[in-house]
Amino acid sequence: MEGICTPYEMGYAQGTLMKEEANHFLDDVWTYLEEQIIQAINSTVHIFKPWFLQDVANLGLEEALDLEIDITRRYTGEYFFEEAKGLSDASGVDLMRILRIHMIGELTKGHCSMFGAWGNAVLKKGSLLQLRSLDWNTDGPFKDYPQVTVYHPSDPKYGHAFANIGWTGWFGSITGYSSQKLAISEIGVSYPDATFGRESRFGIPFTFILRDILQFDNTLDDAQKRMSTAHRTCDLILGVGDGKMQAFRGVEYSASVANFMDDTNMMPEADWHPKINNAVYWGMDWLCPGYSEVLARQLNKYYGNLTAEITIRDIVSVVQSGSLHIAVYDFDNNLVYVANAKATYESGPLDAYDRQFVRLNMTELFMEKTPL
User: Fold this and answer.
1) Taking the domains of the chain in order of start, what are their residue ranges?
2) Residue 108 pLDDT > 60, yes or no?
3) Cα torsion angle, 360, 355, 118, 230, sign
4) Span 208-236, average pLDDT
5) Alpha-carbon Rg of the chain, whole angstroms?
6) Which strands form 162-167's sheet, in the order they lie side by side?
């Protein structure tokens, strides 16, 4: 999206370039969402928040999602709605369908893993390495439409260049890397403890605050301030790495708290979640001994030698986290390694952690010139 100025133009550009794919993906996601809701009401799947299922039962699916849009809108930058309008106008996908689908992150309960490692933990001292593993629906349409969208705003009012790693027609952020060498990780929390306090429906959807970090923030301090002062919503663990500072912070995130953690104050404190010097990590959830123990074991096994290659070969494949997609951020070399679950038209292993990774040279992507 080189040389694009306004959010509307950003959406219009994607809708023009990816019109057919956007239509297929967003239609498939809507159909899948309807099927999952029916199964959830019948108690055969358990991925939705109970209060959302109650809204669906009382109001219907579209009305329940419209309610979510309405109560979060006052906390959300208007530029998200402008980009959605551009995407809709160019692709022909109904605007409300686009907005409804972008509420999914607030309503579902996914499992993911992350780590940040620096200093003595990594092979090259003075560098930073970060993992983002997304464990979610490999039986849905997401695996068929992976996309890395690189934004190049021409007006500083709309931020700086960044890469949004997700799917066609998706402009919220769950995975991504910016030209300011900031990167994001995220874990949905199904098993919190009392330190999280309460959740709320009244705030900025987390996929939008993560995108704001990528698009507008220059430093880890900027990101921390943004999260501290935001009207927050659901229980999450967020992670932000800053390659300029070689620093990573995990965030215990809810409506009640935004607790920032490094290797000295990482929580929860438990035998299965040991502190590791110059590393912060969580496996699959806040209280998830099985995965966190294995992740800790692998980080300790390769302590002092951690690289992107070892993360791919000897960590995610052993922990078996990252079923839908994985990003490994190599800040020192300005590279991002991405893997996706097997699409329906592909062969080989299903899960992203067992598949080949694509290496993205972020220096080259962010230096792309405006086409003449």
Assistant:
1) 7-106, 110-366
2) yes
3) positive
4) 97
5) 19
6) 146-151, 162-167, 176-178, 182-188, 236-242, 247-253, 258-261
pLDDT, residue 329, reads 98
**Pick from 101, 189, 88, 83: which is nearest to 140 by CA?**
101
Instruction: Give the model's pLDDT for residue 332.
Output: 97
E runs forming strands in the chain: 111-118, 128-135, 146-151, 162-167, 176-178, 182-188, 236-242, 247-253, 258-261, 279-284, 325-330, 335-340, 358-361
State mean pLDDT over 251-266.
98
Tokens linked to 360: 């993205």
Residue 258 is given by DSSP the state E
pLDDT range class, residue 3, cuts 50, 70, 90: very low
Identify the burial level of 90 via C-beta atoms within 10 angstroms of its C-beta, where 0-12 means exposed, 13-18 middle and 19 or more buried: buried
Give the side-chain half-sphere CA count within 13 A for 261: 25
- Reported residue count of the chain is 372
- Give the model's confidence band at 234: pLDDT under 50 very low, under 70 low, under 90 confident, else very high: very high
Under the banding of pLDDT at 50, 70 and 90, the label for residue 346 is very high
Q: How many CB atoms lie within 10 A of CB 51?
A: 12
User: 122 - beta bridge partners?
Assistant: 306
Q: Which CATH superfamily is domain 110-366 in?
A: Penicillin V Acylase; Chain A (3.60.60.10)
- Average pLDDT of the chain is 93
Angle in degrees, CA 135, 216, 154, rounded to 5: 115
